[in-house]
């Protein structure tokens, strides 16, 4: 079992660092460790683009303030990259390439020695082209290096009092669009509106998958079990209010990374 001292020692050896900071539990843990190890030589940076869900930036600011790390934002332009807009299975490579290029520029301009990510050991088993982009830019993954998986990430985050220790995963809005369907700012905004409408109903763990005129709602297992007929009607109205003509509520509970699952299985079979 990893302790925070080991992780802080690794980060402290860098001298200074920028943390690619979404405000999720992984990057928040790294940011907390970084400010403990580096003090004022640690900086959390959040990327802002149309793919960032409403409320995520405010949440990141709150976490940064709570753990005491300096926090700034940058604007990324992944939508200007053909590979990202095309939304093939390497979409995250193009997104992370944009992110890490921008963070590299900030680090070089301001004298930071490294860029850190919140990638953890469980990410290795999934389809993660973003890790390829990270390798190309020399990004350091303290949690991954130490073999820290998601369960331990949350344990360490709780131990350090990180406010986002129990925060559900919230990847970019483009992750709701099936591979092969182009990423478009208007579609991202529509997904965001639909998910905000569902959150306003009290749902916490959810996705609205975009299939043209159809919005497919996925809910957490416990929320799905407790859903009443009136609750289903409210979901349909909420998603329609975002501009979807048709609404489907998935019978299976939400599972993070579900769009990658079948592709990852095919990779294993092919190998």
Describe the protein in words.
- The protein has 271 residues and is of the alpha/beta class.
- The chain folds into 2 domains: 4-159, Rossmann fold (3-Layer(aba) Sandwich), CATH 3.40.50.620; 184-259, Alpha-Beta Plaits.
- Helix content is 48%, strand content 13%.
- The protein is built from 12 helices and 7 strands.
- Strands 3-2-1-4 form a 4-stranded parallel β-sheet, sandwiched between helices. It has a 3-stranded mixed β-sheet with strand order 5-6-7.
- A hairpin with a 2-residue loop joins strand 5 and strand 6 (214-219).
- Helix 1 packs across helix 2 and helix 5 packs parallel to helix 6 (129-136).
- The radius of gyration is 19 Å and the shape is globular.
- It starts with a helix and ends with a helix.
- The model is unreliable at 260-271 (pLDDT under 50).
Write the layout of secondary structure elements.
Blueprint: H1 4-12, E1 17-20, H2 25-38, E2 42-48, H3 56-67, E3 70-75, H4 82-86, H5 91-110, E4 115-116, H6 129-136, H7 142-145, H8 150-159, H9 185-200, E5 206-211, E6 214-219, H10 221-225, H11 229-241, E7 246-249, H12 258-270
Parallel strand pairs: 1-2, 1-4, 2-3, 6-7
Antiparallel strand pairs: 5-6
Helix pairs in contact: 1-2, 2-3, 2-8, 5-6, 9-11
Provide the number of structural domains.
Answer: 2
CATH topology of the largest domain: Rossmann fold
Give the termini distance in whole angstroms.
Answer: 32 Å
Give the oligomeric state of the chains in this entry, treating copies of one chain as homo and distinct chains as hetero: single chain
Order of helices and strands: HEHEHEHHEHHHHEEHHEH
Report strand order across the widest sheet.
3-2-1-4
| Beta-strand proportion | 5-15%
Rg value: 19 Å
Number of continuous helical runs:
12
Described by the principal axes of the CA atoms, the overall outline is: globular
Poorly predicted runs:
260-271
Percent of residues in helices comes to 40-55%
Structural class: alpha/beta
CATH H level, superfamily name of the largest domain = HUPs
| Total beta-strand segments | 7
- Mean pLDDT across the residues is 93
């Amino acid at each position: 079992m990893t302790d925070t001292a080991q992780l802080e020692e690794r980060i402290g050896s860098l001298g200074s660092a920028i943390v690619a900071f979404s405000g999720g539990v992984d990057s928040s843990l790294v940011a907390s460790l970084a400010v403990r190890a580096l003090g004022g030589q640690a900086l959390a940076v959040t990327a802002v683009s149309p793919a960032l869900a409403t409320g995520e930036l405010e949440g990141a600011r709150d976490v940064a303030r709570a753990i005491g790390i300096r926090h700034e934002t940058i604007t990324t332009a992944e939508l200007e990259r053909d590979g990202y807009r095309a939304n093939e299975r390497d979409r995250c490579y193009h997104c992370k390439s944009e992110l890490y290029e921008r963070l590299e520029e900030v680090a070089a301009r301001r004298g930071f020695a490294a860029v850190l990510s919140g990638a953890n050991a469980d990410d290795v088993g999934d389809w993660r082209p973003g890790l390829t982009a990270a390798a190309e830019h020399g990004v350091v993954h303290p949690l991954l290096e130490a073999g820290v998986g998601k369960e331990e990430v949350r344990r360490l985050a709780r131990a350090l009092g990180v406010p986002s220790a129990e925060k559900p995963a919230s990847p970019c809005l483009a992750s709701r669009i099936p591979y092969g369907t182009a990423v478009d700012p208007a579609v991202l905004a529509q997904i965001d509106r639909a998910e905000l409408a569902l959150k306003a109903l009290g749902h916490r763990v959810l996705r609205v998958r975009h299939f043209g005129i159809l919005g497919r709602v996925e809910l957490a297992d416990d929320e799905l079990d407790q859903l009443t007929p009136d609750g289903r009607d409210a979901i349909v109205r909420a998603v329609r209010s975002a501009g979807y003509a048709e609404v489907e509520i998935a019978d299976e509970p939400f599972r993070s990374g579900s769009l990658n699952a079948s592709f990852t299985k095919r990779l294993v079979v092919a190998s």
